[in-house]
Amino acid sequence: MTTLFAPPTAPLAQLHAHVQVNGFAVLGAHDIPRWLNCERTELAALQSSWGDLAVDHYLKDGGRYRKRRHSCAVVTDDTVTIAPHRAHWQPLSYNALHGGMQRWFEPISDAVLHNTAWLALLTSGAQVASALHGHQPWFVEAHQFRIDTSDGIGRPTPEGAHRDGVDLVMVCLVERMSVKGGESRVFEANGPSGQRFTMSQPWTTLLLDDARVIHETTPIQPLQDFGWRDTLVLTFRADSFQGDGEVGI
């Protein structure tokens, strides 16, 4: 039997300090409505949209286990400006498996992009990024992911332990249904230390200082015939979206 290690949750009042000291922090599900200043019903309204994601056709391992949608925004103070739909691009130095190419994913629906809780997720994450790196506009890429067990096994991070090439990464567990595995692992980028834990409660949120830590999530397998793991990944970057200035971006 695999031991499930509980996330090392930080008190909400100490969130910024935990990220600054440790390079990452986990907020427990019970703190998320208070952090976002929203109702649980607003988060629940978001959750159903993960059932309408599109197949990721870019997986180089030939897998069918990942579905996703992608959109971008710029957050300035408490204002969220939806950006024109664009390709997701990463350099090979950060994603050796899928980097170096434009990946055009289906956009996130307008109903989600204008949901009150969704907007609060972006502005709250931007506040953490500003606490780390100074107050400024933040260029945000949002990814809705469903990793399922269509192939018998699903890989949340097929590229392995990695950095994303941004300033802050925010990973929210949205739903975990009939799977084992899916352990989150966070390591020092320039050292041997790390932590492992399993996020199991919806809206448990992991925040990562991308310059200081690398992260990965272990594969999932079904507990019975079929299962899935849904997450929201938000990345916050100063100055521009990743890929701006690259040829064809």
Labels describing this entry:
249 residues, alpha+beta, Jelly Rolls, 31% strand
Catalogue the unreliable spans.
Answer: none
Number of helices: 5
- CATH topology, which one? Jelly Rolls
Radius of gyration over C-alpha positions, nearest whole angstrom: 17 Å
Main CATH class:
Mainly Beta
Percent helix, as a range, is 10-25%
What kind of sheet is the major sheet?
8 strands, antiparallel
What would CATH call the homologous superfamily?
A: q2cbj1_9rhob like domain
- CATH architecture heading: Sandwich
Shape: globular
Describe the structure concisely for a colleague.
The chain is α+β, with helices and mostly antiparallel strands.
What is the topological layout?
Layout: H1 15-22, E1 24-27, H2 32-36, H3 40-47, E2 54-55, E3 66-76, E4 79-82, H4 110-113, H5 116-133, E5 138-148, E6 168-177, E7 179-181, E8 184-188, E9 194-197, E10 205-209, E11 213-217, E12 220-222, E13 228-237
Antiparallel strand pairs: 1-10, 2-3, 3-4, 3-5, 5-13, 6-10, 6-13, 7-12, 8-9, 8-11
Structure in words:
The protein has 249 residues and is α+β, with helices and mostly antiparallel strands. The chain has one domain: q2cbj1_9rhob like domain (Jelly Rolls, Sandwich). It has helices at residues 15-22, 32-36, 40-47, 110-113, 116-133; strands at residues 24-27, 54-55, 66-76, 79-82, 138-148, 168-177, 179-181, 184-188, 194-197, 205-209, 213-217, 220-222, 228-237. The strands form 3 sheets. Strands 1, 2, 3, 4, 5, 6, 10 and 13 form an 8-stranded antiparallel beta sheet that branches. The chain has a 3-stranded antiparallel beta sheet with strand order 9-8-11, with no helix packed on it. A two-stranded antiparallel ribbon has the order 7-12. The longest helix has 18 residues, at 116-133. It is globular and about 45 Å long. The model has no long low-confidence stretch (mean pLDDT 94).
